[in-house]
Fold this protein.
Amino acid sequence: MRTKSILTLTAALMATTAMAADKSVTIASWGGSYQEAQSKALFEPAAANTGIEVKQETYGGMSDVRLQVQTGQVTLDIVASGSGSAARAAAEGLLEKLDYGVIDVSTFYPSLYSDYCVGGDVFSTVYAWNTNTYGEDGPQSWADFWDVEKFPGSRAYRGSVAGALEPALMADGVAPEDVYDVLDSEEGIERAIDKIRELKPNISVFWSSGAQHAQLMKDGEVDMATGWNGRFDNARADGGKVAYSFNQALLDYDCFGIPKGAPNKDTAMEFLAEISKAEYQDDLPKYITYGPTNKAAYDTGEITAEVAAGLPSSPDNAAMQLPISLDWYAEWETIAAEMYQEMLTE
């Protein structure tokens, strides 16, 4: 009887493996150390545990998805995306709606997933300062970043509108919880841009990439800069005299979406469900200084208190930040970008 049970169980396991072996997904991300971290923490372990074959590619972003969808030649099943890009792609009809009956987001931060994209990692737009200039006690708010009397020196600020307007309104006295209400009109957008105009004489560089703002701080070319926490961590690790604060930072995330018409849509949904689990996300900080989107990843014991203290999505750090509003970006970014570029060229 025991032998029969073992044979039955073995046959069932072989059948399950055979079914999984027939499943595959093609995932596109941005390459480099970022995709390497995703692969080690998420893709490879999930493939091993599910039996789903994973093919990885690098791609140029949602423009590639748009081309595939418009031509009806969709080869990608899952794509990594910035949250704002995903929101715009969803508005264009380029992404499949995700099934949250399959993907469990019950322990996710509520602002870190949408109908069309589920969060894969968290980063923050912060203000950083040169510790040679100000010591460890640098600015602790956006109002401080704008205060050129209390903190004299040169600034670097983002040269595109994403993540540029919210700090300006907070510096102008708008409470974080009211920022997107104020930005919900051209008058509110203009108010934010006027605040940046006020600081513009002290902005030496309007940066255009993460590598650029990290290098500016590492080389000491500016005294303060806005930018992404992970880039500043890298600059500091490379010897830069850089510190930053999560207070009033913008909590943002990268996410995974499924292109409209993906050839393996159902398997992609299953795979997203797998890599969204805490037991995968708690490995991300081993490879890159971004936080998990699943809060439960902080409870598994894999992320130490010391590591958590430097991650944007740790409960203490997340509580200090303003979550990015994808609804606002989907509705207003095009208009706001035109207004912002006008200010830059004045």
Notes: The radius of gyration is 22 Å. The mean pLDDT is 91.
